[in-house]
Write a sequence for this structure.
């Protein structure tokens, strides 16, 4: 099967990698399946697809999901990179794509920044069922890691933002620490109006 880089319109080449050997499929109840790595010879971006054509018809389908559902999809890749990887930030976006969270807190495109104990960063992007490693090097300081399981999921964050007066049906969401180290969820509405939500449960 021919695979094309959506950015460069160049045919991808299958490559050997130990970065990600297995991944979770979307349907509940399925066991992890083997993944193949395909790289663009022009930009170098690597994409992962289910081996032997499994779900290949749906590999790039838009699959809206919550923040925590998306995190569950990318976590195996982060732990393959480093078993001590910890989450430092999460965004409803890819590298260049304009994507939005709907009023139910669902988004088809999420990105996550992880850090290891040595202070190295890994950016992972999830679109549909495809996990990609960002081709861009992380530049900056993401702040201390946090445990996403202890926080609100995106539907609750969007609901709280609307309670604070944010209007519209589409939003962007960023979960990150400010310069003082406080974890906050920044939700931006259709008119670039934004509110900050405390993501802590309770």
């Amino acid at each position: 099967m021919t695979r094309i880089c959506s950015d460069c319109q160049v045919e991808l080449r299958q490559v050997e990698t130990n970065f990600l050997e297995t991944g979770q499929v979307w349907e509940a109840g399925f066991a992890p399946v083997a993944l193949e790595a395909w790289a663009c010879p022009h930009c170098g971006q690597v994409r992962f697809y289910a081996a032997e054509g499994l779900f290949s018809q749906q590999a790039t389908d838009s699959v809206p999901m919550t923040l925590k559902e998306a995190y569950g999809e990318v976590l195996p890749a982060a732990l393959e990179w480093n078993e001590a990887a910890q989450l430092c930030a999460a965004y409803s976006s890819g590298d260049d794509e304009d994507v939005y969270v709907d009023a139910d807190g669902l988004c088809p495109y999420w990105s996550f920044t992880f850090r290891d104990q040595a202070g190295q960063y890994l950016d992972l992007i999830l679109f549909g069922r495809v996990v990609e490693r960002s081709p861009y090097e992380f530049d900056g300081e993401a702040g201390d890691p946090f445990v996403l399981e202890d926080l609100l999921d995106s539907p609750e964050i969007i609901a709280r933002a609307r309670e604070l007066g944010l209007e519209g049906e589409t939003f962007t969401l960023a979960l990150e620490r400010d310069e003082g180290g406080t974890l906050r969820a920044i939700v931006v509405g259709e008119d670039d109006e934004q509110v900050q939500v405390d993501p802590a449960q309770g």
